[in-house]
Amino acid sequence: MDKFRRNERISAMMKILSDSPNQLFTLSSFCDRFQTAKSTMSEDIDILRSVVETFGLGEIHTVTGAAGGVMYRATINRDQAARYIGNLAASLSGTDRILPGGFLYLSDILSHPEITRWMGQIIATEYYSVRPDFVLTMETKGIPVALTTAGALGVPLVIARHSSKVYEGSAVNINYVSGSSGSIQTMSLSRRAVQEGQSCLVVDDFLKGGGTAKGMEDLMREFNVNVVGKAFVMETKSPSHKRISDYKSLMVLDINHSDSDADSATVTPSAWLHS
Fold first, then answer.
1. Partner residues linked to 4 by β-bridges
2. What would the CATH number be for the domain defined by 6-73?
3. Total-model pTM
4. Bridge partners of 138?
């Protein structure tokens, strides 16, 4: 095999690591792939770490020991996150996107690959430390952001449904109270989707009363799965009391009602982004 130059090795290694974020690659695997000594490969990794940190492209982590190696995490620092979400929130404010029931039209935002990638990486950055085994969301609008979050964390995505599907086998079904309408609804998850003792991160698109999120917590309790975090694209300012606690949202929506003019929406970044 031809000997690779350092710039070729580093370029290829960055591609490999970024395609599988939060996954550990042994030093030996790179040595074998590039036919390079461990000391040389360690120098390459140090250079790559410096480049990634300098340009704010994430983090390169090394784990020492016989079972150690190197991994890439698609982290986004708070300043970057606050600027991006601030610009996005400003574009969502106004009168054009208000829907009946105190909701905001977000379908175009939640289907945009670049926007959902940013959101997923911002959320993942906050929950790397708790090491969830999977990301849980409720069908359907929360799926894109939940998927990019799961991708950044390097874990599977699990989707709860409103009704069980025959092709998913036997399922656990629970009833929950919708926080927005107060109606009784059903949530279903295949028994094969998760394993007892795992931990999960709940990710969804919208938080109003918190009924659906509370339902997902209750559903995980049926599986003896620990919920280690809850994150949402947007929450409403009202009602201030939600059915859940210890969560993070990227944006806060406040509907300004008017008797004479059309209602307007004020969207702001959540306070924790500026902490």
1. none
2. 1.10.10.10
3. 0.93
4. 160
